[in-house]
């Protein structure tokens, strides 16, 4: 498999399934979860220099306030609705895969090891971190640690 095929397979076989099981809806490469007054958002961003042989990407995570989302029915949120913008590195304990901010897949990347690493990142750190704020007051407390 090429790097791009590996990323596509990762999104299809792990990411979409895991996020759906955790209550997230999706449109394109953005996933959101309704939490009452706000949405938790995860957005996958590919870097512009990617090729079939090497794919670098990162996740932008944060919240979107329902009061400010563009969707008139307040049923979904997009990347452009984000009130807070953090990357996955802010919730991971100094662990990066690849040489850049985020993740890197090459033709030589062991797909099974990559999936195991992603499971650790998502199931141990990213998803629990996004579950923690349950109210707007929780959001303020959680996000006050990050300079914006």
* Overall SS class: alpha+beta
Gap between N and C termini, in Å? 39 Å
Mean pLDDT level: 89
Question: What is the count of β-strands?
Answer: 6
Indicate the radius of gyration in whole angstroms. Answer: 15 Å
Biggest sheet layout = 6 strands, antiparallel
Helix proportion range: 25-40%
Low-confidence stretches: 96-100
Shape: globular
Strand content: 15-25%
Number of domains: 1
User: How would you spell out the order of helices and strands?
Assistant: HEEEEEEHH
Number of discrete helical segments: 3
Kindly describe this structure.
There is one protein chain. The chain contains three helices and six strands. With 148 residues, the chain is α+β, with helices and mostly antiparallel strands. The protein has one domain (3-143). Residues 96-100 have low confidence and may be disordered.
Write the layout of secondary structure elements.
Blueprint: H1 3-21, E1 25-27, E2 30-34, E3 38-46, E4 54-65, E5 86-87, E6 103-106, H2 111-131, H3 136-143
Antiparallel strand pairs: 1-2, 2-3, 3-4, 4-5, 4-6
Question: What's a concise summary of this model?
Answer:
By secondary structure, this protein is of the alpha+beta class. It has three helices and six strands; from the N terminus they run αββββββαα.
Key attributes of the depicted protein:
single chain, 148 residues, alpha+beta
